[in-house]
Design goal:
This protein is an alpha+beta fold and about 550 residues long. It contains 19 helices and twelve strands. A hairpin with a 5-residue loop joins strand 6 and strand 7. The termini are far apart.
C-alpha cells in the first residue's frame, strides 16, 4: 500500500468526511504552494469546504506527515502535521502559509524542533506535540495580554479624547479653553487639530466635533477620533507653516517620547521634555498642567500596572523670568486709577454704535467686577427685573455655584442700552437669548431656535473695542483689571474683603482676605448699592 493510500485512510479515521484526499502530491516549495489552487470538487461532484494535499517529500524525513490544507471560503492555506500518538491518529496546525513570511523554510524548522523535542531515538512521539503547542501558545497569549495592557502615552491621549476630556476632580468635561490648551500641547501643532470644532454645552462644558479640512495635499474628512489619528499618525502632519506654527513646535503625540509606556513616565523625563530655551515660563507652566491631567486621568482610570508609579509634580519647577513675558499676565495684579474710570466710561459710551454689545459688556464688567468669561455667557432669561437681579448660573461661574448680580443704577444703565439695541438697529438679534450676541452671525438662521441659542451666536472677545479705546485714550491696561479695580473699591467702601467677596465671587486667595462669612442675599444687595455710589461720575458726565 502506498503512502498516499495510508494518508487517505488516515483522513477517514480523523473524520474528514467532507475532505477529498487527492492522490497526487505537491512540491514542497513556496512557488508551488503559492500557485496551488484547489477546485474544491470531490469525486461525487459535490463542493468541499477544504482540500488537503500531501507534499512530495521522503517518508524517512520529519516532514512525512506534513500536508497543506486549502480552505474554500477564506482561500487561506495552512500547514498541517498528521501523526500517530499512543496508537491514535491526530493532527496539529503548524501555521498559515504567507509568502515571504511563513513558508517552507519556517515550517521545516518548526517541525524539526517539534520532532527533536518530543520523539525518541526510534522516531516515536513521547509527548503529544499538539498539547505542547497549545500550552506554548497559551503562555504566549498570556504574555501578549500583559503587554497589551501596558498603554503608551499615545494610547492615553487618545483615550482622553474619546472620553470627552473629563475633569480630574469633578464630574463633567473641561471647559473649551482648557480643552484647547490640552489639545495644543498633547497633539496639536498638527493638521489634525485643524479638523476640530469647539463648542460649549448648556452646563458650560466644552465639546469637540470634526469638520472637513483641506490639507495641503488632500481633503481630510475625519469621522471619529480613531479615524483622525489614523489619518495623522504620530510624526505625520506636523504643521511647518510659520504663520500657523511660528516656533515650529511639535506636540507630545508627535514626539518619540509618546511611544513610552505611561508607567515609565517620571519627573525627570517630564522636566527635560518641557524645559526648552525657546519656551516662555507661561508655556512651560501650561504644558506641565497638561501632563498633570494626563497623569491624573491614568490614575483615575487604573491605567497603570499592579504597582503604579508616583510622580510628585511639586518637584518639577521652572525659573521665572525677571520680567513677566506673558502679555495676558502682565496686568494680573494691577488696577485702574480712580481718575481713569470716568475716561473709560465716556470712551465706551462713544463706541456703543461702532462696537455694539462689546462696549456694554465692558461697562458691565467695570460696574460689577465680574470675569469676562462669566459676563459674556449671561442670557436675557437670567435677568430678573422683578427681583432686581441677574442670575449667574452655576454652569458659568468659576466656583460652579449659582451667584447673582444686583441691578444697581449703573447696571440698569447697561441693560437699558442693550434693550435699545434690540428695539432699534439690531432688533433682528432679539431671537438670540445672549445678553451680548456677536454680530458675526448667520442672519438667515436666526429663526432657527437651536442655532440662535447656541454658543455660535455669543460674543467671544472684546478685543476690538478695547484696543480702539486704548488707542484713543492712551490708558494702559486690560479688561481683566476691572475685576481687581472693583474688588479694591468694594473693599475700601465696605471695609472688609469678606464683604467684597459677596459681590465679586472671588475664591479664597491672595487677592482678598482668606476668611469669608456667608453673606445673606439681602445684605449682599445692600453692599452692591453702597459700592455703586463709587460710580457717581455717571451722572456728572451725563
Amino acid at each position: 500500500m502506498t503512502d498516499e493510500n495510508n494518508i487517505s485512510k488516515l483522513g477517514d479515521k480523523l473524520g474528514d468526511s467532507n475532505v477529498r484526499q487527492t492522490r497526487r502530491s505537491l512540491k514542497f516549495t513556496d512557488y508551488a504552494i503559492d500557485r496551488y489552487n484547489a477546485d474544491f470538487i470531490n469525486a461525487k461532484g459535490k463542493t468541499q469546504k477544504q482540500v488537503r494535499i500531501s507534499f512530495d517529500v521522503s517518508k524517512n524525513t520529519a516532514l512525512k506527515g506534513l500536508r497543506l490544507v486549502h480552505y474554500r471560503n477564506s482561500k487561506k492555506k495552512y500547514f498541517n502535521l498528521q501523526y500517530w500518538f499512543n496508537g491514535r491518529p491526530n493532527n496539529v496546525s503548524i501555521g498559515e502559509f504567507r509568502l515571504g513570511i511563513f513558508g517552507v523554510k519556517e515550517v521545516e524548522e518548526k517541525v524539526f524542533n517539534l520532532v527533536k523535542q518530543f520523539t525518541n531515538d526510534k522516531g516515536h512521539w513521547t509527548s503529544d506535540p499538539r498539547l505542547a503547542i497549545l500550552e506554548k501558545e497559551h503562555r504566549i497569549t498570556k504574555a501578549l495580554i500583559q503587554k497589551s495592557q501596558q498603554l503608551t502615552i499615545r494610547d492615553v491621549i487618545l483615550r482622553i479624547a474619546k472620553d470627552g476630556f473629563p475633569k480630574t476632580k469633578r464630574q463633567g468635561s473641561l471647559s473649551v479653553n482648557s480643552i484647547k490648551e490640552f489639545i495644543k500641547f498633547m497633539f496639536g501643532f498638527n493638521w489634525r487639530s485643524r479638523c476640530l470644532v469647539y463648542a460649549e454645552t448648556e452646563k458650560g462644558y466644552g465639546k469637540v466635533s470634526f469638520k472637513h479640512r483641506t490639507h495641503p495635499r488632500k481633503i481630510v474628512k475625519p469621522t471619529s477620533w480613531e479615524d483622525l489619528f489614523s489619518k495623522f499618525p504620530g510624526g505625520s502632519g506636523i504643521i511647518t507653516n510659520k504663520k500657523l506654527n511660528p516656533k515650529l513646535e511639535t506636540s507630545l503625540y508627535d514626539n518619540e517620547l509618546s511611544k513610552l509606556v505611561i508607567d515609565e513616565l517620571n519627573e525627570g523625563i517630564i522636566k527635560k521634555y518641557i524645559d526648552k530655551p525657546h519656551r516662555s515660563f507661561g508655556t512651560k507652566d501650561n504644558m506641565l498642567d497638561c501632563f498633570k491631567r494626563l497623569w491624573s486621568y491614568s490614575q483615575d482610570n487604573n491605567l497603570f500596572g499592579d504597582t503604579p508609579p508616583t510622580i510628585n509634580f511639586d518637584n518639577i519647577s521652572f525659573k521665572k523670568p525677571d520680567q513677566t513675558q506673558s502679555v495676558s499676565r502682565r496686568y494680573d495684579n494691577l488696577r485702574f486709577r480712580d481718575n481713569e474710570l470716568p475716561i473709560i466710561f465716556e470712551a465706551l459710551k462713544k463706541r456703543t454704535d461702532k462696537y455694539p454689545f462689546q462696549s456694554e459688556a465692558l461697562l458691565l464688567m467695570m460696574f460689577t467686577g465680574r470675569r469676562e468669561t462669566e459676563t459674556l455667557k449671561i442670557k436675557w432669561s437670567d435677568v430678573d427685573r422683578d427681583n432686581n437681579m441677574i442670575i449667574l448660573r452655576h454652569a458659568i461661574t468659576k466656583a460652579r455655584k449659582e451667584e447673582f448680580i444686583e441691578i444697581t443704577p449703573p447696571v440698569a444703565l447697561v441693560l437699558d442700552q442693550l434693550e435699545r439695541h434690540r428695539q432699534g438697529k439690531y432688533q433682528k438679534y432679539r431671537f438670540i437669548d445672549w445678553l451680548f450676541p456677536t454680530l458675526r452671525t448667520d442672519t438667515q438662521r436666526l429663526y432657527d431656535d437651536q442655532y440662535a441659542r447656541s454658543h455660535s451666536t455669543r460674543m467671544k472677545t472684546l478685543r476690538g473695542c478695547w484696543e480702539d479705546l486704548v488707542k484713543e485714550t492712551g490708558i494702559v491696561g486690560s479688561p481683566k483689571m476691572f475685576r481687581k479695580t472693583f474688588s479694591s473699591l468694594a473693599k475700601l467702601t465696605l471695609g472688609t474683603s469678606s464683604k467684597a467677596r459677596a459681590l465679586t465671587g472671588h475664591e479664597q486667595d491672595s487677592t482678598l482676605d482668606t476668611y469669608y462669612d456667608k453673606t445673606p442675599k439681602e445684605t449682599a444687595k445692600e453692599y452692591a448699592h453702597q459700592v455703586a455710589k463709587v460710580f457717581n461720575f455717571i451722572k456728572k458726565t451725563g
